[in-house]
């Protein structure tokens, strides 16, 4: 990127992210408008240099968020001529800003390598007269005291008295303080006399831990200790195309249900990894069910194809609704081809692997599937079902508007009608079973989906928690129905987002009363279930900018400080498996159990609101049994508009 671009981005950062958020100190604004932040970030992160977010610089440390840098300087009241002690040199960026302000700067860091690189960087940029030192920041720099201001860019358990007493009378100390290493309160202490100080609490912040004599101890498993423990426990993964990749997951082959997650709906490595794991579980360990976060009627087209059954007569192509790329992509295509080839080696159709959808969005196709079945099998019941489903006709193409209509005065909701169809089907269960058991399961689940979808779209207008819970309960109950239909020895693999398959009770979702299929599976199957989460630090992802928007290949920002993803990135191993079931009382699991941020990207990705839109608090070891890590990932390749040259007549249209 050209320097002129950096200059414009710097101006925009100062206007929008600093002055625009309430920083009024003219000296601070002017200094931040001069310092080239791009010179203080790693080369691979240059495009994010002027984002209002912290960025990794190595060693478990970060260059602070620009707004935080400005706010701390404004709170410290620094001005030209002040002697300022900074604890946490990092990249040297804050020291450069202080120097631009005209301060006499003393900066120290416990990481000698960071101090050396910062010194070279500052000299290269022409900043002279800055004192740099490596050592225990909690002890301060007594030989250069007293200071007009002390700014601490790491969070400690309390305000060190050693730093307080290095202030001049009237001097101010700004420091994050808290009982948890990464969740603190920002404190401002002013020295009012020889032994008197005034403290002001300015609210919640999250900084890296302040390690030292009067800070956190590394033996207490601070962040750097956890990174080391992750590095020791991580099992490096072979290449995805290496047969040994699937073998790494033989440890979960004895489970009845294995849930495989993803931290985004548009990441190639997640789909490919789940494919390889599932292929291994099917070919070597007797799994016969693949259940995915997709609608039942769409998945049914694929099921017919892979089980070599006659194609259905879909009302519309499979997976044609937003987001099409979630299932219509090259990665899924390769897995479906493998399933068809595998099933081709199994003579008995009943023993072949099935592909099932757990979700409830495709109301229109489910209605069409039920009516098509009844028209063939039971025309009389078909007529009654068609009349009852007529209640939903105005909303089949846009079911989200049904909930709004259901709240209008005098409108009679369709609940009784759709439940009536399901009841009629269940009354004739034995007769329908005699026709075709597989077809009966299909029509029964479509009828259940319609009833659940009617309630789901109706409850959307009452609150997100009730609708979320209804949806995940439906997915869980559908999984139970599939397991029951396939027999007591059946074993299932589930593909869904981490937010569905990780135990919700171990996340902030649980605090808000939300549950999910992972939690319900643990409650139902106990030790007979495995929850496998997936994560990444950076790369590209296929996602939209808004609901029903076109697919875009977006850059995934490096994970933020305070997140599980950051810890994994700092471990420095490109791909690994972390077995969270081992040594539950050991230092790693104990350290990881502290609530941290975790990233979740759905079909929409808004990197400009990364923290607010895509992070939530979680307890990783209680949320998952295993954690699969890919440091850098790539977007899936959508199949939209593509046709297979070797397309079989029965290939499910839409893939």
TrEMBL record:
<protein>
    <recommendedName>
        <fullName>Protein-L-isoaspartate O-methyltransferase</fullName>
        <ecNumber>2.1.1.77</ecNumber>
    </recommendedName>
</protein>
<dbReference type="GO" id="GO:0005737">
    <property type="term" value="C:cytoplasm"/>
</dbReference>
<dbReference type="GO" id="GO:0004719">
    <property type="term" value="F:protein-L-isoaspartate (D-aspartate) O-methyltransferase activity"/>
</dbReference>
<dbReference type="InterPro" id="IPR052036">
    <property type="entry name" value="Hydrolase/PRTase-associated"/>
</dbReference>
<keyword id="KW-0808">Transferase</keyword>
<comment type="function">
    <text>Catalyzes the methyl esterification of L-isoaspartyl residues in peptides and proteins that result from spontaneous decomposition of normal L-aspartyl and L-asparaginyl residues. It plays a role in the repair and/or degradation of damaged proteins.</text>
</comment>
<dbReference type="InterPro" id="IPR007815">
    <property type="entry name" value="Emycin_Estase"/>
</dbReference>
<dbReference type="Pfam" id="PF05139">
    <property type="entry name" value="Erythro_esteras"/>
</dbReference>
<dbReference type="GO" id="GO:0030091">
    <property type="term" value="P:protein repair"/>
</dbReference>
<keyword id="KW-0949">S-adenosyl-L-methionine</keyword>
<keyword id="KW-0963">Cytoplasm</keyword>
<dbReference type="Pfam" id="PF01135">
    <property type="entry name" value="PCMT"/>
</dbReference>
<dbReference type="GO" id="GO:0032259">
    <property type="term" value="P:methylation"/>
</dbReference>
<feature type="active site">
    <location>
        <position position="64"/>
    </location>
</feature>
<keyword id="KW-0489">Methyltransferase</keyword>
<dbReference type="InterPro" id="IPR029063">
    <property type="entry name" value="SAM-dependent_MTases_sf"/>
</dbReference>
<dbReference type="GO" id="GO:0046677">
    <property type="term" value="P:response to antibiotic"/>
</dbReference>
<comment type="similarity">
    <text>Belongs to the methyltransferase superfamily. L-isoaspartyl/D-aspartyl protein methyltransferase family.</text>
</comment>
<dbReference type="InterPro" id="IPR000682">
    <property type="entry name" value="PCMT"/>
</dbReference>
């Amino acid at each position: 990127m050209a320097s002129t671009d950096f200059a414009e981005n710097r101006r925009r950062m100062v206007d929008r992210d600093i002055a625009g958020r309430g920083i009024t100190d003219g000296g601070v604004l002017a200094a931040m408008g001069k310092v080239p932040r791009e010179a203080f970030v790693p080369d691979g992160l240059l495009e994010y240099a002027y984002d209002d977010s912290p960025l990794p610089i190595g060693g478990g440390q970060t260059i602070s968020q620009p707004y935080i840098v400005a706010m701390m300087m404004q709170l410290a009241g620094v001005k030209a001529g002040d002697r300022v002690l900074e604890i946490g040199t990092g990249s040297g960026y804050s020291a450069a800003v202080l120097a631009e302000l005209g301060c006499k700067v003393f900066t120290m860091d416990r990481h000698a390598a960071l101090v050396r690189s910062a010194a070279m960087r500052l000299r290269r940029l022409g900043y002279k007269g800055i004192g740099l030192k490596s050592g225990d920041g909690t002890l301060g720099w007594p030989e250069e005291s007293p200071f007009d201001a002390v700014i601490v860019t790491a969070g400690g358990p309390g305000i060190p008295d050693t730093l307080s007493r290095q202030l001049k009378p009237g001097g101010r100390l700004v420091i994050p303080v808290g009982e948890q290493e990464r969740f603190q309160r920002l404190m401002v202490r002013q020295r009012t006399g020889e032994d008197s100080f005034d403290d002001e609490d300015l609210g919640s912040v999250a900084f890296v831990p302040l390690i030292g004599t009067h800070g956190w101890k590394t033996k207490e498993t601070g962040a750097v200790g956890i990174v080391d423990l992750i590095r020791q426990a991580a099992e490096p993964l072979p290449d995805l195309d290496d047969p040994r990749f699937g073998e790494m997951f033989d440890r979960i082959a004895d489970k009845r249900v294995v849930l495989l997650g993803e931290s985004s709906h548009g990441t190639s490595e997640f789909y490919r990894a789940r494919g390889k794991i599932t292929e291994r579980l099917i070919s070597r360990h007797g799994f016969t069910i693949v259940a995915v976060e997709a609608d039942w009627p769409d998945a049914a087209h694929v099921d017919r194809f892979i089980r070599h059954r006659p194609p259905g007569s879909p009302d519309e192509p499979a997976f044609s609704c937003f987001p099409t790329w979630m299932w219509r992509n090259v990665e899924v295509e390769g897995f479906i081809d493998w399933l068809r080839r595998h099933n081709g080696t199994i003579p008995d159709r009943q023993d072949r692997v099935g592909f099932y959808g757990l979700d409830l969005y495709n109301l229109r196709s489910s209605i069409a599937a039920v009516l098509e079945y009844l028209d063939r099998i039971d025309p009389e019941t078909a007529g009654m079902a068609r009349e009852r489903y007529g209640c939903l006709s105005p909303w089949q193409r846009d079911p989200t508007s049904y909930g709004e209509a259901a709240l209008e005065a005098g409108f009679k909701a369709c609940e009784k009608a759709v439940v009536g169809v399901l009841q009629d089907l269940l009354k004739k269960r034995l007769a329908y079973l005699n026709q075709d058991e597989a077809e009966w399961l299909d029509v029964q689940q479509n009828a259940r989906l319609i009833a659940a979808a009617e309630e789901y779209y109706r409850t959307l207008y009452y609150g997100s928690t009730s609708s979320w819970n209804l949806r995940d309960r439906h997915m869980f109950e559908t999984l139970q129905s599939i397991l029951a239909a396939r027999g007591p020895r059946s074993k299932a693999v589930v593909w869904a987002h981490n937010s569905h398959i990780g135990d919700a009770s171990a996340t902030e979702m649980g605090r808000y009363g939300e549950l999910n299929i992972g939690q319900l599976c643990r409650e139902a199957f106990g030790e007979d279930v495995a929850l496998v989460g997936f994560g990444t630090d950076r790369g590209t992802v296929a996602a939209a900018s808004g609901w029903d928007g076109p697919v875009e290949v977006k850059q995934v920002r490096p994970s933020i400080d305070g997140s599980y993803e950051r810890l994994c990135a700092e471990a420095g191993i490109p791909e690994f498996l972390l077995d969270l079931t081992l040594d539950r009382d050991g230092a790693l699991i104990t350290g990881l159990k502290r609530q941290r941020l975790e990233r979740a990207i759905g079909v929409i990705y808004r990197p400009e609101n990364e923290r607010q839109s895509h992070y939530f608090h979680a307890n990783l070891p209680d949320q998952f049994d295993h954690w699969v890590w890919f440091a850098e990932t790539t977007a899936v390749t959508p199949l939209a508009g593509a046709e297979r040259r070797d397309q079989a007549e029965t290939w499910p249209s839409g893939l």
